[in-house]
Amino acid sequence: MQKSTSGNGQYESLSEDMYKSYYEYSGKNDTIETIWSNAFGSNYPAGLNHFGFLTNTDLAMFMSLINAKRGDVLLDIGCGRGGPGLKIAEQKKLKLVGIDIVPEAIHEANLLKENFDLSYTAKFEVGGFGNIPMPDDSVDTVISIDAFWMVKNKEEALNEIKRVAKNGAQFLFTTWDILSDESSLMARQGFKVLSMLETENWKTYQMKVYDAILKHKDQLLKEMGRAANILISEAETVPPILEVTVRRFYHISVNK
């Protein structure tokens, strides 16, 4: 599971400081790329430098469902290094704004964007679900990958998305639900759930990643120092939670 925009109970040990170290060092480490690419096989989205569990299947779903027009504004919340948002913006010819709470991730995203053939601007800055640095009614499409699940105040986050999104805008995201779904919450906040699907083979991919992290624990610590702690901590603590969760892809419409 990826980082959150706020702490939450048993995951408080996965601190922002640990993520800062990760984004400082892991981009220089081939072991991480090998672990993820081996776990995902042909479903691995190469070249995106992405820390999370996005697959090519997920990415294709984002591409097929986003109906934005050329030059529309795409907002990626919890963007990390920005790879998935950049790929979508490149293919769909959109203006991109990516936000993340970790400044080191924003720095990496601004470097990575040079690898993409963008038709419009791509801007990355510090922000999160509860604090989106954009004007009211300025966003055509909102995406988020593997971040919404740990937002403590989801009502506040949805209200903030509703503030910056235009009426009829799309909100597409992946998240883990605790043996339930968020559709009733979405409805109460004025969103319409267009589809809600369990992502393909999510648990298999995730466990392969965690098993490989623990197998190569000593190597990661040697190569990355404390930056490896976030990976090891997640691999050790999250697997039991997967038995009572489901990873889903949500396609939502914003109604004002």
CATH level 4 superfamily: Vaccinia Virus protein VP39
Instruction: Look up the CATH topology.
Output: Rossmann fold
Name the strands of the widest sheet in spatial order: 3-2-1-4-5-7-6
Shape: globular
Describe this structure in words.
- The chain is 40% helix and 21% strand.
- Strand 1, helix 4 and strand 2 form a beta-alpha-beta unit.
- The longest helix has 14 residues.
- It has 256 residues and is of the alpha/beta class.
- The relative contact order is 0.18.
- The N terminus is likely disordered.
- Helix 2 runs antiparallel to helix 8.
Strands, helices and their partners?
Blueprint lengths: L15 H10 L4 H11 L15 H10 L7 E5 L5 H10 L2 E6 L2 H10 L9 E5 L12 E7 L8 H11 E13 L5 H6 L2 E8 L3 H14 L1 H8 L4 H9 L1 H4 L3 E9 L2
Parallel strand pairs: 1-2, 1-4, 2-3, 4-5
Antiparallel strand pairs: 5-7, 6-7
Helix pairs in contact: 1-5, 2-8, 8-10
Protein name: Methyltransferase domain-containing protein
InterPro entries: Erg6_SMT_methyltransf, Methyltranfer_dom, SAM-dependent_MTases_sf
Comma- or semicolon-separated keywords:
256 residues, alpha/beta, Rossmann fold, seven-stranded mixed β-sheet, 11 helices, 7 strands, disordered N terminus
